[in-house]
What we know:
- The structure is a single chain.
- The protein is mainly beta.
- It contains one helix and 26 strands.
- The strands form six sheets. Strands 2, 3, 4, 5, 6, 10, 11, 16, 17, 18, 19, 22, 23 and 26 form a 14-stranded antiparallel beta sheet that branches. A three-stranded antiparallel beta sheet has the order 1-7-8, with no helix packed on it.
- Strand 16 (216-227) and strand 17 form a beta hairpin.
- It is globular, with a radius of gyration of 27 Å.
Amino acid sequence: TIEQYSNNAMSHNWFSLQRAEFPIQKKFAKWEIKWIPAAVFQNGFSSNQLLYSRLNPATKLTFTRKWKKQKKLIFTLAHEVVTIPGNVVRFLNPESLSGEQYSWNDLNGNGIYEASEKGSLLRRFGGAYHKSDDWDTPVYEELAMGYETALSTFWNMIVVADLRWYRNLLKVHADSQTSAGYIKTSYPESRQGYVYDRVSGYGNETYLLGNNQTDSYYASLEINFLRKKRTSFWDTSLGAGAYFQVAAPPPGNGPWINDIGYISEDTADKNAEVASLARTDYDRGYMLHWITNFYFGNITWSHLFRYRDGEPLGDTLIADGLSQGPVVIQDEQRARGYEGISRFTFYLTWDTKLSYTYKNFTFGLEINNIMDSRTELLERYLRDKYFRRPYEMIPPRSLSLSVKWNW
């Protein structure tokens, strides 16, 4: 296929966020109550016009109870506004890059496009064909609980649990008045066994930004053990956590999910429904960190151990031979849904730092990734001969020197 641009003079994209808070704090019986109502004002505009303007309320209510024996219990209820990202402004800007995609008939077989080889119109794309579908601002509701208690004279335990419910997530879909027609076609190369072949509506696309019809949920639990008093030459902190999320925003054909949703024309294609659970992330993970400091007069020796599960993985496939040209589909559930844990490898590092303080100066020697672990942070998710080839690795062992002057 070839692409022909109808405009190449793109205007700037701008967005702004203002937040006003009005904290109120009271005591009731043995509870401290803090209420923070807020107003969130968000705008997006191009060089020539205002693209959206939203004023939404937010609120946070916290209840805190303290006991004499160094115990503390905290409950938090919140209704929060999600920050609208810059890609929404870029999508809604009618002056962003636009054009048409055509099939290419390489008549002489030289692999070089010539004007006489332009085939039929497949689709149009870009800001000139983007519109707003009266969407609501993404928000989330949160319930959090924290508990802290003294296990002994020197040790504290902190437990934090968090639940979130994301609503009004954003998604790009096709205008029902101009959407294309598709037929379900057998495709044995796909694990799903089928794809959608486009049969009508070429070059008549209009893409609408609206709210997704499904919500997302997130839960986490974290436990920390702290050596709170340094009565000898050392202190330490050990923390462990776990999380689970069911995320419904469409991540498209990439490995990442963000809470607000994936803003792209990809989700307007009928093939975005293939392996629909691939856009639902039944992800669970664990993490661990351990920090220990040793003190010898003006010398401090610190160690940091970190472990984290790898990112969930779902592979993609390029479907060829369709009337609309090659289409990328997500052919497998991310992390294989409830049934599997296909993911990138874990993250494990050990860092250390030695610092010496003399008057107003602090001299530091830091070694990162002492074990020189080189596990991957990102892998190729396209199913071809390079599938799961590492794209990004943990940085190798490194050494750095620093001088800090306090005045």
